[in-house]
Specification:
- With 136 residues, the chain is α/β, with parallel strands linked by helices.
- It has four helices and six strands; from the N terminus they run βββαβαβαβα.
- The chain has a six-stranded mixed beta sheet with strand order 1-2-3-4-5-6, sandwiched between helices.
- It starts with a strand and ends with a helix.
- It comes from Pontibacter anaerobius.
- This is STAS/SEC14 domain-containing protein.
Length: 136
């Protein structure tokens, strides 16, 4: 059962310790310090509970601004791929700019050549089923 880890106007972050899963449900235009805090909280949660699967529900998240994208490439992506996560399921954003930013992050992730598998899904149920395959 998922428990709430953090919540503000832009994101709700949950985890299930038994299943070793986490998820973040993003909403709106999150930038600067708020964006960085939220993404670092996700990384902290993954590490703290050694989560193996993560759902990023980005459907309602606006575009990532260039400064936050550059920070993500320098800080977030390297820490993400070096963490315990094996699978990351993405429910893509409705905003084209957000998808372009994620594509850039995927390129960086692929250059780091780590074990993390990332897939996009249209439905949360399908994404969670894929994540549960490695959760235990």
């Amino acid at each position: 059962m998922f428990k709430l880890y953090f919540r503000n106007s832009f994101v709700r972050i949950y985890y299930d310790k038994e299943q070793r899963l986490g998820k973040a449900i993003w909403n709106g235009h999150l930038t600067g310090a708020e964006f960085r805090e939220a993404t670092l909280l996700c990384l902290d949660l993954m590490d703290r509970y050694e989560l193996k699967g993560w759902l990023g529900d980005n459907r309602k998240m606006d575009s990532i601004v260039p400064a936050d994208l550059q920070w993500s490439l320098r800080v977030f992506v390297p820490q993400l791929v070096e963490g315990p996560l094996l699978r990351l399921a993405n429910l893509p954003s409705e905003h084209e700019g957000h998808q372009k930013a994620l594509d850039v992050m995927m390129e960086k992730k692929n250059k780091l050549d780590q074990q993390l598998l990332i897939r996009e899904f249209e439905a949360e149920e399908e994404a969670m089923a894929w994540l549960r395959e490695v959760a235990y």
